[in-house]
Write a structure and sequence with these properties.
The complex is a heterodimer of chains A (184) and B (317).
Chain A lengths: L1 H19 E13 L6 E13 L4 E7 L4 E2 L2 H11 L7 E8 L9 E13 L2 E14 L2 E11 L18 E9 L1 E2 L6
Chain B lengths: L1 H23 L1 H16 L29 E10 L18 E11 L4 E8 L5 E10 L10 E10 L16 E12 L4 E12 L12 E12 L4 E11 L1 H5 L9 E8 L3 E8 L6 H4 L13 E11 L10
Antiparallel strand pairs in B: 1-2, 1-12, 2-3, 3-4, 4-5, 5-6, 6-7, 7-8, 8-9, 9-10, 10-11, 11-12
Classes of the chains: A alpha+beta (184), B alpha+beta (317).
Chain lengths: 184, 317
């Protein structure tokens, strides 16, 4: 009887933990920058994200090469000359959401995540606002923020006469699925 | 009984404490998040390697790069006269007074892997029409360690020369096929090896004993010094017993060395080469200039890519 209670307790605990972890394998990331000659914009749907609603842990990773530009030459220059994506293949954010989210209640939760944004191999402490939407157990996250090229040592080669904007707007959107351990 | 009860409660408390402890320990939890994130993104690591070369040409050979869909690449390639030797020196401003060859070329991307090109040389007034197809792309996980691009070209020498055999139209046609094996070893170093086959329906130069068919092998590479500037080298060897044995004229292997500069849209190459001709149909068959005789020249290549895709409509919503 008591052992049963103990087993139940442990089972409940682990079960609850797995319910609190959410993953997304097709997060959408768009970047935009207004430049005098032509606007720079690209989109990727290959971002990955993990969200733990109990602890508030949130993590994003995006392969830089998956950002698709309308102009192929711009994509090549972005990877080769600015982001050096052979050396720094991913941009990541790892942080903690400061606010409480109740996944059992539908609603829009404005949140702020404090953590480390790594772009071009350079880490920056950032506090990034966003919102989490819970709709009948489906959790999604959206955020919009700016990245300064100089904060992440993204150099614009001097030989390129074209002026390139110093600030890049970034939009992130992820719809999560609750995580099930592969072997359970 | 009492003891059992106590043990159960104790165990339950310890367990509760442990799980609670695990949750407050940020580092442990976020490392779990980390490893989960890594396992999620581990699946798609095989991207095609981008930009093995910055342009479709090095000095002599074409690179493994093709022009992307609906992009037009415009090329102007120039070779001046001999810098030194009998035809060079101050009297020709070290060759700048002369042009041994000028080549104008248009390359248009039909798909992201296939382009068509049309060009004209001053040398032999050669017109050429070709297709270039990127068959294999090197992948970042090295499952495909090299890129393979194939080229097929037809060359036409439209104007008559003083030989009666030339009157036959088919004698004016030349064919060139090449397979380019390229590898980007690092973001700085890219190398390629390209075996090729050249068919001149009329042996060129038109000398008794000259062959119609020439197999040859090219080796070329690029080493970047900065993100936008690099050193390029290029060399080709035609396997031809006629060319090996011939004493008058004497033939030499074409080779070149140069600097490549990219300025976002344009790629410039400034080079020195002994080959007088720009098209492989000409330089593989007929390079009679020798470096040590001062028969090398300044040359340059200018390429400009125009994106002809419909007006940029933006994807940021």
């Amino acid at each position: 009887m008591k052992y049963l209670a103990l087993i139940l307790l442990v089972w409940f605990k682990t079960n609850q933990t797995s319910q609190e972890t959410y993953v997304c394998k097709n997060a959408k990331i768009s970047i935009y920058s207004k430049a005098p000659l032509e606007d720079i914009d690209a989109v990727s749907t290959k971002g990955t994200s993990v969200l733990n609603t109990a602890t508030g842990d949130v993590a994003f990773s995006i392969p830089i090469k998956s950002l698709t530009f309308e102009k192929s030459l711009m994509q090549e220059h972005f990877n080769e000359n600015y982001m050096e994506s052979d050396k720094y293949p991913n941009a990541t954010f790892k942080g903690k959401i400061q606010d409480k989210i109740d996944v059992s209640k539908n609603g829009v939760y404005p949140v702020t995540a404090a953590g480390v944004l790594e772009v071009h191999g350079v880490k920056q402490n950032r506090s990034i606002p966003g919102k989490i939407v819970v709709n009948n157990g489906v959790v999604s996250l959206a955020s919009e923020f700016n990245v300064q090229c100089k904060d992440h040592q993204i150099e614009i080669p001097q030989i390129v006469f074209k002026k390139i904007a110093e600030t890049i707007q970034v939009k992130v959107a992820a719809t999560y699925a609750s995580y099930k351990k592969p072997n359970s | 009984m009492k003891f059992h009860q106590k043990a159960v409660f104790l165990a339950a408390f310890v367990l509760l404490g442990l799980t609670g402890y695990a949750q407050t320990k940020v580092t442990r939890d976020s490392s779990a998040t980390d490893s989960l994130l890594n396992s999620l993104s581990a699946d798609d690591k095989a991207d095609p390697v981008l930009a093995t070369f910055k342009s479709t040409r090095l000095i002599l050979t074409e690179t493994s790069e093709t022009i992307k869909k609906n992009n037009l690449n415009f090329l102007v390639i120039h070779r001046f006269g001999d810098i030194a030797g009998a035809d060079g020196g101050g009297k020709t401003l070290w060759g700048l007074d002369n042009s041994s060859d000028i080549y104008i070329d248009f390359e248009y991307g039909l798909t992201n892997n296939l382009d068509i090109d049309f060009g004209r040389s001053k040398y032999e007034q050669l017109l050429e029409l070709g297709l270039k197809y990127a068959l294999l792309r090197q992948t970042s996980d090295d499952k495909i360690p090299i890129a393979l691009t194939v080229i097929g070209k037809t060359g036409l020498k439209p104007y008559s020369v003083a030989t009666n055999v030339y009157d036959d139209y088919t004698n004016r046609l030349n064919y060139f096929v090449q397979a380019i094996f390229a590898r980007k070893f690092s973001s700085r170093l890219s190398l390629q090896i390209a075996p090729s086959f050249l068919r001149n329906n009329l042996p060129y130069p038109y000398i008794v004993g000259n062959e119609k068919n020439i197999f040859s092998l090219s080796a070329a590479g690029r080493f970047k010094i900065t993100k936008c500037m690099g050193i390029v080298v290029d060399y080709a060897h035609p396997f031809s017993s006629f060319r090996d044995k011939s004493n008058s004229p004497k033939f030499y292997d074409p080779s070149g060395v140069g600097i490549e500069v990219e300025t976002g849209g344009h790629v410039f190459t400034l080079n020195l080469t002994n080959a007088q001709a720009i098209s492989p149909i000409n330089y593989l068959a007929d390079t009679q200039a020798k470096w040590t005789k001062g028969q090398y020249r300044i040359g340059f290549t200018i390429t400009r890519v125009f994106d002809l895709n419909r007006k940029h409509k933006g994807t940021f919503k």
